[in-house]
Amino acid sequence: MSSNAPHHPIRDLRFFLTVPHACSYLEEREATTLFLDPQESHGQGVYDSLALLGFRRSGRHLYRPHCEGCNACLSVRIPVNDFHPSRSQRRVAKRNGDLRLVERPALFDAEHYALYERYIEVRHSDGDMYPPSQEQYRTFLTLDEPYARLLEFRLGERLLAVSAFDRLEHGLSAIYTFFDPSSEWERRSLGTYAVLSLVNEAYRQGLPHVYLGYWIEECRKMSYKEAYRPLEVLEGRHWRRLLPMTAPA
Question: Is the peptide bond before 244 cis (omega within 30 degrees of 0)?
């Protein structure tokens, strides 16, 4: 099965463009977003096909950047069978070997929201998602669809992190991860461990890719994605291997 072309017809779907707005990642840039008409079917087949073309999900919306004169946002994914964790990533996996992972549907949970609220207030008080609210959380991370999932990371009964992801025909798509921002857990690198856990889960299920969303070379906040090797980038309708800029540690 080729993973470089959609498996389901999408030519008759309706799409809309947002009005230009301030870019969240690059200063003094404007962004425009292409999104699927919310009235269209969001079934698994449509989503699988659009994901191969660089679309992402936020709540009920499937979207991708469509900015005039700018192609900075690149869709990236990890080819699971070729992935080689670095020494530091192996250390992260070992440090977190005592955590219990629990997969759940992407439905609202008060314990999850309390952790999300603390995470946004401590880590992203200068970002677009501040201040957090239950309505914002529900709109962003909850969806009553079989493919939308949440992965809990627990130390005993204590919730340390939650990773929202989608189960696609050709891989797992990482949506968002939030974790306990307390300094006592910093050494665990829970964000890194969440990605490694998705890679392990995709491998276990025989799925070829883990999608990491968009990568912008100029954006420091996205530089962590370069640490997962090898990495593939979408160019037009084809995925190609991204050459490493530096050797991973």
Answer: no
